[in-house]
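Discussion board: Methods & Data

I've been asked by a reviewer to show the raw model output for two of the constructs in my manuscript, not just the figures. I'm not sure how much to include, so I'm pasting the format here to get opinions. Each protein appears as its amino acid sequence followed by a line of discrete structure tokens. Is this the kind of thing reviewers expect to see in a supplement, or should I convert it first? Here is construct A:
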Amino acid sequence: MIEELLPESVVAVEAHGDERPGGTTPYPELYPEEQALISRAVEKRRREFTVVRGCARHAMEKLGVPPQAVLPGERGAPQWPAGLIGSMTHCEGYAAAALARATDLASIGIDAEPHLPLPDNVLASVALPDEDRRLRGLAERHPGVHWDRLLFSAKESVYKAWFPLTGKWLDFSEADIDVFMDSGHATSGGLRARLLVPGPVVDGRRIGHFDGRWTVRRGLVATAVTVPHAQAAQD
């Protein structure tokens, strides 16, 4: 599901429910330094932590990189092996990791959420007035999609792509996201996030917006954002 939202240069591995990451069996063992991070966590947290790292290690193998520990760095952002960039996500019954070589892309952000309405009062803290207006229009025309949850997921993906490039927090109010549908499809499409603060500098060029894709499938909404290198963006 995530893979279809990303360019060919990205390797994505996912696990649904009781599936093993990328078809591996059994679930991967944690490295000691990872185990130490969740030694007191509840079983649900331990399982999610383990499965998503299994996805990440399987993606490393596909890229020809020896599997290794994935530890959280500043603000919890995953620390990837030298030469790789990536992103991870997990929610109830789903986990995924997307990795690429740093020479192919500048940054990646992925997110998956249950395809359900956001809890009461959450949208007010997430959506800008223009976003809220656009969402209401989409909901009137296509009520089968929980657009509020899609916006939340998109903002999560934007932040995950933003932080490795800047090392700074990005508030929900600092990116204005426009969501659009593929022609003839109400369950997939694209998105553009207009940055309302100075964007990151990539290869000497300041980025003013991020682009991405979204889909609704199997009871989930998934979003992905990729930031190309400056030359690729110009091409």
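Construct B, same format:
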Amino acid sequence: MARAEKNAKGITSLRYRISGTVPGRGRLEAEASMNTQPPAMSMTMTAAAAQGGNGQGRRGQLEIRFVGKVMYVGGSAVRPEKLNGKSWLSAAPAIWGRGGADNQSYGVLPSQLQANPTAQSTLLTGSKDLRLIGTEAVDGAKTTHYKGTVNSRGLIGGRLDQFIQLEVSNPLTMDLWIDGNDRTKQFRMRAKHNDMFADAGDGPLDLTITFLDINQPMTIKAPPAKDTTPIADDAQKG
């Protein structure tokens, strides 16, 4: 596991799959690609309520890209009236990065999903009850399966913030599958929704992230400018 943590730091590009449930979002399926230099990400997601956690969002597919610090959002889950006849919304960091922006109405994912999954895969190294489960096949690859729990006290910096925003309670249960090259092949995170904040119908956190391609050439491009419309900065209206 220590070798897998070390190898995670050398990943420059990654294609991965996400499946499971998120509190306030329900069931989701996603596939994403990311580069670390320069930083870029593309994610296509299908969720029960892709826009907002109150179940009032449009159902359908949502595509999110981060290129050159600009966020782009497109797909059938975006409300057509927001697009002004175009295919994509675009937002500069001043808008998507500000807590007061109406991000949820545009289907932006919780920060826990936007974060680098290679860093999340190393959380289990802080477990006090780590145990070996056995050898299992994941997507045809032979892996070693480990399991343990992590408390928020063992998480630092942004990694802790991600789970606070999801309003989940301790402990966070993790499963980790490491392949024959000492790299993470898959990990699963589970936690109960914090009852102090829970709304009716909110379920637990239960996400499985599977790494499909590591350090393979990939290109992530911004949509054509003619196909995008900027997200309005509500703070500057009027």
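Answer (T.O., handling editor elsewhere):
This is acceptable in a supplement if you add a one-line summary per construct. For B, something like: The first strand starts at residue 13 and ends at 22.
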